[in-house]
Structure to design on (317 residues):
């Protein structure tokens, strides 16, 4: 069984001396001041996991405001110590939870690498940086250790998200109608969906082979979760321009788009420009020459189309 491989490997990482020393430091700070709050947080996260409602982009936004308020009232270093303690506490419960959650074997095994990166972040990342819930790995790690997100190689999938109603608004009558008809006739609602995004700590498998494996594991997950209507991704690299400007990245959208996925071009923005240019001198040069303007696009692959592709792929490989 996959848990027979994953759980001993995870327990060994959690027994690492450097990790346990940092965990003890965080626990000493957090439990002296926030023991009651932490007990409430553990209960509220478990309740959120068991529910079937939507989860906000940031986990703490789906919970009572006292948790965000508490972190905001601390110094950056104190906020980081508390955040690291929260994640470390969830990590301690992870081996038992992996059995309870009954995930596909491939996803269970992915937790080995995920736990390695999480424990390394707790030990090595600065406390102040880790405690910034809007820009660090804290929210991602909280999701992963709580079963609200799952690791899939270089990708992470968030469970039970909803597409925004702006999907069929603000783009003109014809485009709004096209998007609305897709939601009503094909997606049959705005959610629940799984949302896919990258984690730079796991960039080693950010390639076409890893992407295919990610889609196959999403299909396996959907077989266990009949309420999931599809997968949604929003990024600059779903922009149709990318297949010409950066053909090596075309695989990120090619398989879904060749197999029935829906695409909506959302528009440009500073954050999308920043992300599109930060790792590519070629895209940056084209942007500076006025030959490329990054835009963000939303891609949705319905459950039926994704699982149909997965069946065909598995039969042919």
């Amino acid at each position: 069984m996959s848990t027979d491989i994953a759980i001993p490997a995870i327990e060994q990482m959690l027994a690492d001396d450097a990790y346990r020393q940092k965990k003890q430091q965080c626990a000493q700070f957090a439990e002296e001041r926030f023991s009651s709050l932490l007990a409430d947080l553990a209960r509220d996260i478990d309740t959120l996991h068991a529910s079937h409602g939507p989860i906000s982009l940031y986990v703490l936004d789906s919970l009572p405001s006292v948790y965000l308020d508490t972190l905001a009232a601390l110094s950056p270093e104190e906020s980081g110590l508390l955040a690291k303690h929260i994640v470390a506490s969830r990590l301690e419960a992870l081996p038992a939870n992996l059995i309870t959650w009954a995930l596909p074997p491939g996803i269970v095994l992915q937790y080995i690498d995920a736990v390695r990166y999480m424990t390394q972040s707790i030990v090595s990342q600065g406390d102040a940086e880790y405690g910034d819930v809007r820009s660090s790995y804290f929210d991602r790690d909280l999701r992963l250790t709580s079963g609200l997100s799952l690791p899939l190689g270089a990708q992470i999938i968030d469970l039970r998200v909803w597409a925004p109603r702006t999907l069929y608004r603000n783009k003109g009558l014809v485009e709004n109608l096209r998007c609305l008809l897709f939601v009503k006739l094909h997606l049959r609602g705005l959610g629940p969906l799984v949302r896919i995004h990258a984690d730079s700590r796991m960039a080693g498998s950010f390639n076409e082979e890893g992407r295919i494996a990610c889609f196959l594991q999403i299909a396996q997950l959907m077989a266990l979760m009949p309420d999931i209507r599809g997968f949604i991704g929003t990024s600059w690299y779903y922009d149709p321009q990318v297949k010409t400007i950066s053909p090596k990245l075309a695989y990120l959208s090619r398989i879904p788009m060749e197999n029935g996925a829906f695409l909506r071009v959302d528009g440009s923005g500073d954050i999308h420009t920043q992300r599109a240019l930060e790792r590519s001198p070629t895209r940056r040069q084209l942007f500076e020459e006025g030959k490329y303007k990054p835009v963000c696009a939303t891609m949705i692959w319905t459950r039926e189309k994704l699982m149909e592709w997965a069946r065909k792929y598995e039969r042919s490989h």
